[in-house]
Sequence to fold (758 residues):
Amino acid sequence: MSPFIVALIPLLPALAVLVNGLLGFRVLKEKAHRLGVGSVALSFLLSLWVIWQVAFAGARADLVFYEWVVAGNFSVSIGFLIDPLTAVMLFVVTGVGLLVHIYSIGYMHGDPGYPRFFTYMNLFMVSMLLLVMANNYLLLFVGWEGVGLCSYLLIGYWYEKKSASDAGKKAFIVNRIGDAGFLLGVFLVFMTFGSLDFREVFPRADQAAVGVLTAITLLLFVGAVGKSAQLPLHVWLPDAMEGPTPVSALIHAATMVTAGVYMVARSHVLFSLAPVSLQVVAAVGALTAIFSASIGLVQNDIKRVMAYSTVSQLGYMFFGLGVGAYAAGIFHLMTHAFFKGLLFLGAGSVIHALAGEQDMRRMGGLRSHLPVTAPTLYVASLALAGIPPFAGFWSKDEILGAAFKEGQYLLWALGVVAAFMTAFYVFRMIYMTFYGESRVERERAHHIHESPRVMTWPLILLAALSTVGGIIPGFPPEGGLIHGFLGQVFASHGAPEAQHGLELVDYGLMGVSVAVGLAGWGLARFFYISRPEIPGALARRFSFVYRLLLNKYWVDEIYAALVVNPLLRLGRSLRNFDERVIDGAVNGVSFLTVLWGRISDLFDRFTVDGAVNGAGAVVRGGARNFRRLQTGFAQNYALAMLLGIFVIASLYLLF
Amino acid sequence: MSAEVPLSYYLILGALLFIIGAVGVLTRRHALVILMSIELMLNAVNITLVAFSRMQGNLTGQVFSLFIIAVAAAEAAVGLAIVIVLFNSRETLNIDEINLMKW
Fold:
């Protein structure tokens, strides 16, 4: 495998960042997307070539380009690790990334910050590619922070809007908590193994004590919890929907938020040796899945439904990783990227059509107006709900199956309930948006239009991927292509993902999955098509539960009371201390200095200047008197000369 | 044979002439008069030199007086030239008014 081509994959978007960042506003302007989309397209093609090499030529590579940090026996290089896991991530990142970039041409058209948008998006691509290609923890951390930065920049992309810039700050600060844990984990990896390279650390993992490994993995998982919006650090992701919708699709659904999943899967060697950590991962994942699915049931903002759905699906991925089904977790990451990216882009198309309307209570009956968006969103919903043969079914079913067979019956039950809720809320979204009476405000109603083709084609392609993206790599369950592919990475560790034939229990579990999916779908249809008065009645009947869910379990309020407000108060009192005591001391010192300056000034003026001026005055006064000798009359001089001669002659004669 | 005029008479005459010239140089205000007074002083010296030369039978003094006459001629030429230029530029020869060198 040519190192040059591998290096080009992140370098091309990096180049586009430089050019767009420097010349975007002055030269490229409305043409900024040519560079932004073009570079990602080339990266995608190169990635395909690399994936081909990995999949069909069995190529593996650990390429080191540059010794980045060398200090004593500590050294970190800039190097890329190419294996099946990276290949899958490359496909997801560049593939979905390319489609979202293309979609953005239409969605962001006419935005005053057009070149800025593509600069940030490309910077995100660079960081994300570094993250998934890194061959050591430090370079991974660079990508990790880079995507966090881009997330912040793009959530706050419309920074004139207070809510958007607040949401950006919130995302950044909450992520900081996770990043601190991640960084501590990386330090501990270095202390334990003396290196940060994956190829150094993983083979020696079993030499470390279980306690140390548990600490390392839990700290790394804290990072993943922050980045992938798991309980209890999930609060930033729903607010992140303030960003433009393509950003939500790419960063906050398909790629960046899955970085935590990728990192845990990449570190599966360590996690497999720390059963306590794995149990924590599984529990957090399952709890998050059901927790945010339940919030998604009642949200009215179309993007917030998606956001909680994303949190919930990320929970599934961690759930899968936690029960040792690494390949299933990554498989779900991939299928989720397809259908959730599609859901967001479709939602963006709806919002675009309604000129910015996001509240589903003011939609409805849009099916006939949006002939491409509606069916593609329907496909995505089927995939998310886990209806076979669409993509989500295969991966979600594998996670649930693995959990059941690992004996995690409680967590399995949580997952099944969450799957039911998922099917319900996603079809609730479909029915509220596309079916029933139109509740669109009149001034918006007359210019509803389908999006331009540059936006609908990515929808169609993603719909195709959401249809076949599960069955092709995932059939038959637990024995599909993806397992053979990813099994090369995960094979020697973790739960046995044996290539056994399907047993009765598998069919039973599959049946349960399909049943809850269909039940959720049916219930949504019953509630929102057949008997539209039921949801309101239920909300009144169980008003506490309804308000609990609508207000997202008041987590934001609890955090505000417990963490944010005390910190603000501490900040305010520190400011007071600063203003009174520190500023007082500084001002006091300055007052004394000024006083001393005045005294010196007086001394200077009267003593030093006095001496100088005095010398001048003496000389001038003397000169004023002596110059009277210089009369200018030659006769006076002659007289003086004569007198002088007379005196000298007299003295000569006398003595 | 007339009696020789004693040397002291010549010296007294020279001294008198020199004093008259010196007083003229110091007191007169007209530039031309001052020049004439200087001539008077030079010739007073000449008388003295010639008198000493005659008395001692040594011609050195007379040679010196010839030199002084030459210098006096040159001095008169240069002095008169200065006086003429001075008059052209200032339209006065009163040296009280010629005081540029004063502080």
